[in-house]
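Figure 6 in text form: structure in, sequence out.
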């Protein structure tokens, strides 16, 4: 796109179209989009404000709201919280009093609620978002029940002739944000269920419509379900889905620039789960380059890179990451990302046998994770604290921590934490002389271990496994959309089994 040539033409057209309301609004949207793609959010939001005022003067509350919500979306991407609050507050009041067609009103509500859900998820506030997500799910059900034939005649106002998204695309989007929430909260089965529904809907739509947005939705769903597979111990499926994500990128060149950092991050996570630490390091470093070293994704990568260095006992490299992974200096607005940073600090202190600091950091993780129902961080922290108390000889306290960790990991389900916890439980039962529960702990540990080993071997035999040694042919990201995709990736993925093997 030759934006430098397009912008002066669009500005001239905007000046000339004052008496053609539909085209005037359309040109404002077009120019705002170009500025947004160039990351000139100030200019983009200024144009959207002009559009909102023009639509209000043209007596179109519907299109006025589309401009306002679009401005709120850009403010959200920029993390301009004051502007987000201003736009969302004004839009919320206008939607409540909207008297246009029911279909238009519900469409605006879905747009509004999607932004609210994304706002909470970007802030890592998994528990706080639940009532808003429920409203969104109810609103999309209302939309699917509204039939065109029951609608009143279309407005004669030419400024009203805009659509945010087709109803079918809105349904996929609601599935997507539900998957995002499920991943952050640690409900892997639920994430898998809604991913399957969304991907099925996308395949149906692609037979009728090749809109590029569908590929973006498909890629973001794959990014989340891949992490789900890794947590559940399904590495062989995960690497095949990573390969599928690469194939989706090939269908649209712009997706390369938007998602290259995420793809390299996923390959790095897979390599970690396969104990290929050098490959994981290389993939994470490439992902950092493609993310420009900024944003939530960079913070997530650095935390996982720190775990790689811990497991490789590379203290000097870990020291160089100290500032970017420190919870007090972490460049992140996410509650759960900061909680994850405390976990990594606790893990580091544990490796150094500094149990006092380890307990302090992990208790902070627990406090933050419990506050927002970030279940996976809770289970990881509980089992690591239990391991610390076992190392200190406090068997009862260890039992009090490992038992709920095991129960919570089973609900997620997180096979790595279950493996770690079952190993600790069989040792604890042996120490207290409970042979029956010791035998059960041994049985569970053997079952989890054999399952992971089978999957590990199967993964290593796949041709797709070779991706961990490759650098993808992608361009550096140039658009803001990657930040939206990255902002919801806040689950800290570790291979606890390897940590346990190293320490026991």
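Output sequence:
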């Amino acid at each position: 796109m030759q934006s430098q040539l397009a912008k002066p033409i669009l500005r001239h057209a905007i000046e000339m179209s004052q008496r053609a309301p539909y085209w005037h609004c359309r040109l404002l949207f077009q120019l705002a989009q170009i500025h947004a793609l160039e990351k000139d959010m100030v200019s983009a939001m200024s144009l959207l404000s002009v559009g909102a005022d023009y639509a209000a003067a043209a007596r179109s509350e519907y299109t006025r709201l589309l401009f306002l919500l679009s401005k709120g979306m850009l403010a959200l991407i920029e993390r301009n919280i004051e502007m987000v609050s201003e736009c969302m507050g004004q839009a919320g009041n206008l939607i409540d009093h909207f008297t246009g067609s029911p279909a238009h009103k519900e469409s605006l509500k879905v747009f509004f609620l999607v932004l609210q859900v994304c706002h909470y998820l970007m802030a890592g506030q998994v528990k706080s978002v639940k009532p808003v997500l429920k409203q969104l799910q109810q609103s999309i059900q209302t939309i699917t029940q509204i039939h065109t034939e029951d609608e009143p005649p279309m407005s004669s106002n030419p400024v009203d002739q805009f659509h945010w998204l087709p109803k079918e695309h809105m349904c996929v989007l609601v599935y997507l944000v539900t998957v995002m929430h499920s991943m952050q909260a640690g409900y892997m089965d639920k994430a898998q269920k809604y991913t399957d529904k969304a991907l099925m809907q996308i395949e149906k739509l692609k037979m009728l419509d090749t809109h590029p947005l569908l590929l973006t939705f498909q890629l973001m769903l794959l990014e989340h379900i891949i992490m789900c597979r890794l947590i559940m111990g399904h590495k062989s499926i995960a690497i095949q889905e990573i390969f599928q994500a690469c194939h989706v990128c090939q269908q649209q060149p712009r997706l390369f620039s938007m998602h290259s950092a995420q793809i390299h991050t996923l390959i790095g996570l897979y390599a970690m789960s396969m104990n290929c630490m050098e490959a994981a390091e290389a993939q994470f470093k490439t992902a950092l380059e493609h993310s420009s070293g900024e944003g939530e994704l960079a913070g997530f990568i650095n935390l996982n890179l720190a775990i790689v260095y811990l497991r490789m006992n590379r203290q000097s490299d870990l020291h160089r990451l100290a500032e970017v992974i420190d919870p007090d200096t972490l460049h992140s607005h996410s509650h759960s990302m900061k909680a994850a940073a405390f976990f990594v600090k606790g893990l580091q202190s544990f490796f150094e046998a500094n149990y006092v600091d380890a307990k302090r950091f992990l208790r902070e993780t627990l406090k933050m994770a419990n506050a927002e129902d970030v279940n996976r961080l809770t289970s990881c922290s509980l089992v690591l604290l239990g391991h610390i108390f076992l190392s200190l000889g406090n068997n009862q306290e260890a039992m009090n921590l490992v038992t709920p960790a095991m129960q919570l990991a089973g609900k997620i389900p997180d096979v790595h934490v279950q493996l770690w916890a079952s190993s600790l439980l069989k040792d604890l039962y042996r120490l207290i002389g409970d042979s029956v529960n010791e035998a059960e702990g041994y049985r569970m540990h053997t079952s989890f271990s054999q399952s992971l080993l089978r999957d590990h071997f199967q993964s290593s035999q796949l041709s797709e496994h070779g991706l961990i040694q490759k650098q993808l042919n992608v361009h550096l990201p140039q658009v803001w959309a990657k930040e939206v995709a990255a902002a919801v990736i806040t689950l800290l993925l570790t291979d606890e089994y390897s940590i346990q093997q190293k320490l026991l």
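Caption detail: The two ends are 57 Å apart (CA to CA).
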